[in-house]
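Look at a sample.

——
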Amino acid sequence: MKLNHFSRAAITICAVLIMATAAQAQSFEVVAAGLSNPRGLAFAPNGELYVVEAGNGGTQHCHVGPTGPRCFGLSGAISRIDLRRGITETVVNGLPSLATPSGTNATGAHDIGFQGQGNLYFTIGFGGDPALRQSALGDVGDSMAQVARLLPNGSVRLTTDLGSYEASNNPDEDLPDTNPYGILVLPGRRIVADAGANDLLEIRANGDIRTLAVFPEFQLPMAPSRDAVPTGLAVGPDGAYYVGQLTGGPFTTGVANVFRVPPEGGDPEIYASGFTNIIDIAFAPDGSLYVLQIANPIPNFAGGALIKVAPGGTRTQISVPLFAPGGIAIAKDGTIYVTNNSISAAGGEVLRIRP
């Protein structure tokens, strides 16, 4: 197992809620609601916030996936949040989605990134042997396990088939599995963490793909080895790539790491350890690393957490109630945005957190 997965009208920004802790008061507010399995977030060059929604599946091509029954539909979307006016609007819909019959725990659009105006790219996951795309989904299977681009005219183009790359290369030499997750969009290249394949990939402007790093299985005492499952990633102040680790089941508490990978690629090094079920990471303007944990434990998804790691290594948990958070983005002024209820068919939301 390589990863256990888990338009709308304008809305008014909800009232600010205050959570008091022994260290300091934390304020947060809901800036978008009614989202369908929301995951990654990113700021456009004009400052607007975009969020990808993995959708709630559908009624087609039902089959048993890595975590149980799931069905296909074109219910995924990308939404734009106008933070100044407090409205959310759908930018594109009809993206491929796999979800349980109830629409929860979707696999679809997982993360999003910008590089300049008009360069919006996003990952579309899958979860499983890439050969199952055809056998389980037929002709629509090739829309999964991809990197896609939203063109200025509003249409979507699939740009990179990472399922085919895994089938042909299988860098970790384990059973073939692909689930493209986190993405960085950088000048002349895109960097993708494939949570199923346990690798970090570089996609160059000409479409060539290169494996930057492979995250090996790890062993715990008296337990079978398990996959690393890389999820969120970020560029650090030193220019290196930092990658969060979910870990494979049974999702033991305290064994997830944040890895550092040199810009040119190489063996991953542990930058920070002792986390649980990391789903995304982001660096703040002051150099602090924020680590987003989806749950403790899985599969009931309670105990989501946001942890700040200061440049000197001091850790502080940000006291905001989270349930299955799925993505994080940090504005230039240090304000934090997090998707919450990221496994909900229609109850997902985006929180603004002012630490």
Summary: Residues 1-25 have pLDDT under 50 and may be disordered. Residues 162-169 form the longest helix (8 residues). The domain at 17-27+36-278 is CATH 2.120.10 (Neuraminidase). The chain is about 5% helix and 50% strand.
